[in-house]
Write a structure and sequence with these properties.
The structure is a single chain. This protein has about 375 residues and is an alpha/beta fold. The chain folds into 2 domains: about 230 residues, Spore Coat Polysaccharide Biosynthesis Protein SpsA, Chain A; about 130 residues. It is built from 12 helices and 11 strands. Helix 8 crosses helix 9.
Length: about 375
C-alpha cells in the first residue's frame, strides 16, 4: 500500500491482536489532558483495545501531574521529565518506556484525533512499516483558520524532506509503528520536533501508509512551534542527509560552502581595492579571508563530526590542503592545454577547478576533518 493509494483499510483492528502504548509529549497542557484522556478512553472501549496512555511531561508545574494522579483510569500514566526539555527526547524516552508492541505518538493539544487510531492500527496489521495520520492525503484536512504562511511553511518543510520519503505528510507528529520496527533504529538523535521523520528514516521504513485525519487547531494553551524550532528542523534535516547519503551529502555541503566562499573572496577583494590596497596583496588577503570563511563553515557544517577537536591544527591542515588543491588546479589546466592546445582555456580552467575542488574535498574529508573510529563492544564501529 503506497502513500497515494485510494484504498483504505477497514476501520476496526483485530481485537486483542496487539497491545498499544500511546506516547504523548507535553509541556503545560493541563487544560487539554482531560479531553484527550476522555477521547482516548472512548476509542479504547469502542474497539476493545488493550491500550495504555503514557504522558511524558517536561516538568510543566501546571497541575498536569496532579490531574492525571486523580484520574480513575489505571492505564494512564504521567512521567515527569526533569532533564532537558525537548519534545523529541520526550517522545524517544516514552517509546523506550512503552509496554505495548505497537507504539503510537500523538500531540496533547487535540490537533490529532484519537478516533483515527483504529484505522492506523489496521494499516499496521496489513503490513505497513510506518503509519502517518495525514493532513494531505485524500480525505485529510486542516482547520479553516490555517493562514497562508502556516500552510506555506508546512509545504516547504515537506518538500525539503522529499529525498527521504514520498509520503505527503512526513512532518506529522501523529504516527504509529511496531516495537520491532522501532528497535531497528540506531543513533537516534533528532533535533527539534520532527521525531517522526527521524524514525521513518533511521528505522528503514519502506512501506509507509497515510491515514487521512482532520488536523484541528489547539483550543487551549500556546503553540510550541517557534522560529528556533524551525531552524532546528533545518539542522535536523542536515543530520538526516548525512545519515542517508553519507559522503555525497558532505560533498554537496562542501560545494555549497565553496560557492559561498567564492562570493566572499570577490567581495573582500572589491572592498580591499576600494580601500586603496594594491592588487597583489589585495588578492592574497581576499584569498585568506575566503579560506578562513570556508574553514569555519566546513568545520561547523560539512564535517561537523570533527568540530570538537582542536581547531588550530585543523586550520593549518586545511590551508595546506587548499594550497595543494590550488596547485593541482593549476597543473591540471596546464596539462590539458599542453595536450589539447585548441581547447578554449576557459573550459580547461573549469576542469582544473573541478579537479582541484575534488582534491580539496578528499583531503578535507579524510585528512583534515577525518572521522575517528573507536571499536565498541561486539566489534561494532562507532564514530566520535
Amino acid at each position: 500500500m503506497s502513500p497515494n493509494d485510494s484504498e483504505r483499510p477497514p476501520a476496526t483492528p483485530t481485537s486483542g491482536a496487539h497491545t498499544v502504548t500511546i506516547v504523548v509529549p507535553t509541556y503545560q497542557e493541563a487544560e487539554n489532558l482531560p479531553i484527550l484522556i476522555d477521547r482516548v478512553a472512548a476509542v479504547r472501549a469502542a474497539h476493545a483495545l488493550e491500550l495504555d496512555l503514557l504522558i511524558m511531561d517536561d516538568d510543566s508545574h501546571d497541575g498536569s501531574a496532579e490531574l492525571v494522579a486523580a484520574r480513575p483510569e489505571p492505564w494512564v500514566e504521567l512521567v515527569a521529565r526533569t532533564g532537558d526539555r525537548s519534545l523529541s527526547l520526550a517522545v524517544l524516552d516514552g517509546l523506550r518506556r512503552a509496554k505495548g508492541d505497537v507504539l503510537v505518538c500523538m500531540d496533547a493539544d487535540l490537533s490529532h484525533p484519537p478516533e483515527a487510531l483504529p484505522t492506523m492500527l489496521v494499516a499496521l496489521e496489513h503490513g505497513a512499516d510506518f503509519v502517518i495520520g495525514s493532513r494531505y492525503v485524500e480525505g485529510g484536512s486542516t482547520s479553516d483558520d490555517w493562514g497562508f504562511l502556516r500552510w506555506l511553511n508546512s509545504r516547504v518543510a515537506t518538500l525539503l524532506a522529499r529525498p527521504f520519503t514520498a509520503a505527503r505528510d512526513p512532518m506529522a507528529g501523529y504516527f504509529a509503528l511496531t516495537r520491532s520496527t522501532f528497535e531497528r533504529a540506531s543513533e537516534l538523535n533528532p533535533v527539534g520536533y520532527k521525531v517522526g521523520l527521524e524514525l521513518l528514516v533511521k528505522c528503514g521504513c519502506e512501506r509507509v501508509v497515510e491515514v487521512p485525519i482532520h488536523f484541528e487547531d489547539r483550543q487551549f494553551g500556546k503553540t510550541k512551534l517557534t522560529l528556533g524550532q524551525q531552524l532546528r528542523y533545518l539542522q535536523h534535516l542536515r543530520r538526516l542527509y548525512v545519515h542517508k547519503f553519507g559522503v555525497w551529502s558532505q560533498l554537496a555541503q562542501f560545494l555549497t560552502v565553496g560557492g559561498m566562499g567564492t562570493v566572499v573572496n570577490v567581495l573582500a577583494l572589491t572592498a580591499l581595492l576600494a580601500l586603496g590596497m594594491s592588487m597583489r596583496p589585495a588578492v592574497a588577503a581576499a584569498i585568506g579571508v575566503a579560506m578562513c570563511f570556508n574553514f569555519v563553515l566546513n568545520r561547523r557544517f560539512s564535517f561537523s563530526h570533527a568540530r570538537t577537536r582542536a581547531w588550530p591544527r585543523q586550520f593549518v591542515a586545511f590551508v595546506a590542503a587548499s594550497s595543494v588543491g590550488a596547485l593541482v588546479n593549476y597543473g591540471t589546466v596546464l596539462f590539458i592545454l599542453a595536450r589539447a592546445p585548441a581547447l578554449p582555456p576557459q573550459l580547461a580552467a573549469l576542469v582544473g577547478v573541478a579537479v582541484g575542488t575534488l582534491f580539496n574535498f578528499l583531503a578535507s574529508r579524510y585528512l583534515v576533518f577525518r572521522s575517528l573510529h573507536v571499536r565498541a563492544r561486539g566489534g561494532a564501529r562507532d564514530q566520535r
